[in-house]
Structures are given as C-alpha cells and as structure tokens.
Amino acid sequence: MTEQKRLLIIDDDPDFVEGIKSILDGAGYNVDVAYNPKTGLQALQNKSYDLLLLDIMMGRGAEGIMIARKLRKDTKLREMPVLIITGIREQMAFLFPGEPVHPRFVAVDELVEKPVEPKILLEKVSTLIETAEARQTKAG
Amino acid sequence: MNRKEKIIIIDDEEVVLDSCTQILHGHNYDVSTAPDGMQGLTLVENIKPDLVFIDLKMPGIPGLEVLEQIHNQDSTIVTIVITGYATVDSAVEAMKNGAYDFLPKPFTPDEFRLITKRGLERRKLVVEAITLRREKEMLQENFAAIVSHELKSPLGAIQQNLYTLSGEIADKLTENQNTKLERMKIRIDDLIKLINSWLRVYSVDISKIKENFTANSVPALISKAIENVEPHAVRKDVRLIIGENKQLPLIECDETSLVEALVNIIGNAVKYSYAGSEVTINSIEKDGMIEILITDKGVGISEEELPYVLSDFYRGSSNKSDESSHGIGLTISRKIVEAHNGTILVTSKPSIGTTFCIRIPVMKGDG
Asked: What residue numbers bound the domain in which A82 lies?
C-alpha cells in the first residue's frame, strides 16, 4: 500500500466496532470511529476519508438513514465510497422507498450483513476504494 | 383522561329529548339532541359520539336506516334504539342491525340512566379492545426492528469478535483449540439464522419475492443449498447424494428465497437422519414442472403428525432426535414454494424415512 487509507466507522455498538476495527487496523488502514450519528457527521465535515463504514440501526431507530440522506445531498461526500454494514437487510428497501434493496445512494456503495467475515470485509473495503478512485481519475 | 363522554339522542318528540337531557343533567356527559334522522346523522359526523339513542319511528329517514348509516360511519359507536311500540320484532331487527340494546317507551329516569351507563361501558370496552388489537399489530410490525436490535446486534458483535480473534490467533492455537472456536462460530451462526427465519415469518411479505424472479437452473440452486447444509451433514455423518440430473429446463425464481427453502428442507432431512445414513436429492422434469425430491432414511413422521408439518410453528414431537428444531423453517419453505406457484408435498413412514417433493413450474419457453 503506497499511502495509508483513512476509514471512518459510524456505529453505536462498541463491541461490534472493536471486532471490525482490529481487522482493518491489522490490514494497515487508519481507522477512526464515531459511536453516534452526530459525531460521525462532524468527523465527516472535519476530515476527509477514503471510505465510510456505516451502520444503519443506531440510537432510537434507523438513524444511519439520516446520514445516508445527508451524504447523498452533499456534492463532495457523495463521491466517498460507503460500505453499509447492517443487521437488517430486509428493511433496507425503506432506506429510499421505491428503490431496489441494494441502496446505491451514493456513487459507490455496497452492503454487507453483520457479522462479516474478515476476508469479505477486507475485499469489499479495498474494492470500494479502488472503484471510487478509478471513478475520480476518470472524471478528473 | 377526564374526557366528557358524548351522547346524542335522536327523537322526533321534543318532550323525550327534553326529559332525557334533563335526566342526564348533572352527570359528566356531553348531551346533544336532534329531532330527525338527517340532522342526527350530521351531528354524529361532527361530534363523533360515544353513544347514540335513536327513536325507531320517526318522520324522514327511518330509524333503522339511521342506525345503519351510523355504523357505516364508525362501527365503534354504541347505539341504543328507543321504541315507542315495544314490539319484540322491531327491537330484534334493530339489534340485528348492530344496535347494542333497546329501550321501550315509556321508561323511568332510572331505567334511562342505567342503560346509558351500560351503553357507555360497552363503548369503553369496544375502544379498549381496538386499542389492544392495534398495539398487537404494531408490535408485530415492529417485531423485525425489535428483534434485529435486541437479539441480532449482540450476537453479531460476538460473532464479529470471534471472527477477528480466530483470525489473529489461529496459528498460535492447537487444532483442537481451533475446532472449539469453529464450533462457537457455527452455533452463533445457527442462532443468527434462526432469528432471520423469525424475521421472515413476522415481517416479510413472501409473496413480494415474485417481483424479482430470474431464470435459474435447478441443479445450480441445489448445489448452492448443499454448500450450506454440507458442514452440518458432515458433523452428523450423513451423506448427501445428488441424483444424476440430465439437462433440466430452467425455472423462474427468486434465487435467494428458493435456495433458502431448499436449505431448510435438506437441512431438515439431515437433522432427522440417523448418523451414517444418507439423504438423496433428485430432480426431474414432469408434466411441465420440475420436481425436486428430497428423501431421508430418518426417524420419519407419524401419520397423525404428517398434516401439520408444513403449518405455522409446528415442531416435531418425536423425541427420537436430539436435534433442536425451529419449527418455522418448513412453514417458510412452503410459503416460498407457493410464491413460486409451486407445491410442496410430504410423505413419510415412521422409522423408514421421509420424502419432500417440491414442484415448480418450468419457465415459459424453456420446456
């Protein structure tokens, strides 16, 4: 890896975060964590990340959806790849009603279900980052 | 909480309206009156009363029709008919039309107070019953979210840490220790799958999968299902034998769901098999349908139990197997197969074995 990629995890379950963070740390990523949507959004405003790992069911309901909606509206953040990690695949259709289960709410995103095997997690993360970079180069 | 209960009296005799209002005066009621059916109905619409008294014999719209229209507006409103000619017939007719009770004229103030009180109590019960039913429905609808968060999240966190931990220390552990970790992962995985099955039963409208049908080959679906069941079969020392399937036509299906159904049924066959026995899976084309036969040589199902195995939440009562079963896998499988315009049949002989037969129509133009 030429430079260390920066990842942000927004998830309110510290135990789960611990699980995926150490996989990502081990693979050489620089990982920040926000344990609620609010600090998550602040982190996104203050720093730039190569990828966001987003939980949907947080707090009193599907607060992750709020973040997803904000990202979609933000021209800059819209370009950041997002890996949605959720326990509720079947409810994902409510994320953006009328759209298919797989959200595609930003340019590059993907969905995995909790828990996720380390190998799959790392594959998805690197593929998403590469795809987003290829898009940027093409556009730039 | 201390809401005034609303009462409407519809009667063409002014003296009745006056005296009734007088009788109820001093109670915590909000009483309105109307001299005929038409005005009465307007009042009902505006006030949304708890209780309505209706005179059966009035000029204009007949009392019975007023009654009917009130119930069409809101079936929870309690109605009591006042009848001047206390014939059983008209009272019975009114009760048939949904009136809660009837009050023959002339009546005493006490009679009127009593029947008012009973009528309002009735209304309270009706409203309470509806609230309870709604709560139950809400709970059912939200069950998915509740279960996801309260049960799945902790399990997901445990599993995630196990994955990570075993990745980090696998090379430092003995084979035996690694097996223990694997066993933990498998059992947690089973739990997560169980919760997912519950979620499907409670919250997913299986008929909706029809919207995502694609062309698939049955042998490919079977292999995917086998992949899932195999570890379990190996642990139980049950051999999975897949019959030779010649070129079979494609079917239209939702791949994920149909594989899930197959996993459930093949998994079930393994579950109720004796160690060292085998489960065979054959698929053939017959009369425009693909027939998938899953046969085990296991404990079998008794004749009395057979009709129930595919119904909601049935759980085998035979204790011949030490396996736990979820009792919903087969129900879901049946629903999935039916959503594919298919059928599922089960035949069984105790101690000899069970055969599940899934039939799904061949895709149009591929027969």
From this structure: 6-139
Query: At B30, is the secondary structure helix, strand, or coil?
Result: strand
Residue A64 lies in a domain: yes
Q: Which residues of B touch A115 (CB under 8 A)?
A: 155-157, 159-160, 163, 192
Residues of chain A contacting B148 with CB distance shorter than 8 Å: 57, 87-88, 91
ipTM of the complex: 0.75
CA atoms within 13 A on the CB side of B150: 7
Q: Flag whether residue A20 sits within 8 Å of chain B, measured between CB atoms.
A: yes
Identify the closest residue of chain B to A21 by CA–CA distance.
B164
Secondary structure percentages of chain A, helix, strand, coil, to 5? 45, 20, 35
Q: Report the domain count for chain A.
A: 1
pLDDT along chain B (367 residues), means of 10: 84 92 90 94 94 90 91 92 77 87 89 95 93 81 67 88 90 91 88 76 68 87 89 89 84 87 91 91 92 92 78 52 56 87 90 92 80
In a domain, A1, yes or no: no
The 8-class DSSP code of residue B94 comes to H
